[in-house]
Amino acid sequence: MAIIVHKYGGTSMGSVERITNVAKRVAKWARAGYKIVVVPSAMSGETNRLLGLANQINSNPDPRDLDMIASTGEQVSVGLLTLAIKAQGIDAIGYSGWQVPIKTDDAYTKARIESIDSERILDDLNNGKVVVITGFQGVDDKQNITTLGRGGSDTSAVAVAAAVNADECLIYTDVDGVYTTDPRVVDSAKRLDSITFEEMLEMASLGSKVLQIRSVEFAGKYKVKTRVLSSLTDPLMPLEEEMNSGTLITFEEKNNMEKAVISGIAFQRDEAKITLKSVNDTPGIAARILKPIAEHKIDVDMIIQNQSFDNKTDFTFTVPRHDLTKALAVIEEHVKPLVGVVEVTSNSKVSKVSVVGVGMRSHVGLASLMFETLAEENINIQLISTSEIKISVLIDEKYMEVAVRSLHKAFELDKN
Amino acid sequence: MAIIVHKYGGTSMGSVERITNVAKRVAKWARAGYKIVVVPSAMSGETNRLLGLANQINSNPDPRDLDMIASTGEQVSVGLLTLAIKAQGIDAIGYSGWQVPIKTDDAYTKARIESIDSERILDDLNNGKVVVITGFQGVDDKQNITTLGRGGSDTSAVAVAAAVNADECLIYTDVDGVYTTDPRVVDSAKRLDSITFEEMLEMASLGSKVLQIRSVEFAGKYKVKTRVLSSLTDPLMPLEEEMNSGTLITFEEKNNMEKAVISGIAFQRDEAKITLKSVNDTPGIAARILKPIAEHKIDVDMIIQNQSFDNKTDFTFTVPRHDLTKALAVIEEHVKPLVGVVEVTSNSKVSKVSVVGVGMRSHVGLASLMFETLAEENINIQLISTSEIKISVLIDEKYMEVAVRSLHKAFELDKN
Question: In chain A, what are the domain boundaries?
Answer without folding.
Answer: 3-250, 264-410
